Structures are given as structure tokens and as C-alpha cells.
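2024-03-11 09:14:02 DEBUG pipeline.ingest accepted 1 chain
2024-03-11 09:14:02 DEBUG pipeline.ingest length=100
2024-03-11 09:14:03 DEBUG pipeline.predict start
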Amino acid sequence: MEKTMITKADAVSEISELLGIKEWKQEAGEDKPAGELSFFVRDDDNGGASFFVDKRHIPHDDVIKKLMGYFEDREFSDDGECAISPIVALYTVFSIQGKE
């Protein structure tokens, strides 16, 4: 099966829509977006983003299944990767980033 080539920016946009998560543009004094359980923060240096998915919003296993389904037929064209952080108490944390 031929895979669709995507950029990190494509992945950030499509995954945020897939999970229904809004971007948080850090404003002074906010610890997360008002009224949102889950959010993502863009990394302007590498074109990627870090996602923080509250487990009360979407269970950890569901996030992993959605990511696996998304990347099943896609491949990065710009040396990107999806890195899932070790399990954290309240959030499933993953990043779209450049390979290190």
C-alpha cells in the first residue's frame, strides 16, 4: 500500500481536527486554554506541536488507536515523527517533531 506523504504541519492540523483539540496560544497567567480539557501548543522552531490530551476527555487507549489509524497510511516527507511521552497521570502527551 502506498503511503500519503505529509509534513509536520499537515499532521498537526489533521490530528487536532481528528481529536477535536484546539491550539493554546499561551497568554499571560493562563495554565491552559479556558474551558478546554485538552490542547496543543505549536513549536514554531520545527513546525511541530506538543499535544496534551486529558484522559477524562479522550481515554489514553483511544488516543493511541486514533494515532495508529492516522499514521497507518501516512508518512512524513520532512523528517518528522510522532513521539509519545511516557504515561503521565492526567494527560496523554505526544509530539509531532523532527527526528532527533
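2024-03-11 09:14:41 DEBUG pipeline.report The CA atoms of residues 20 and 38 lie 9 Å apart.
2024-03-11 09:14:41 DEBUG pipeline.predict end
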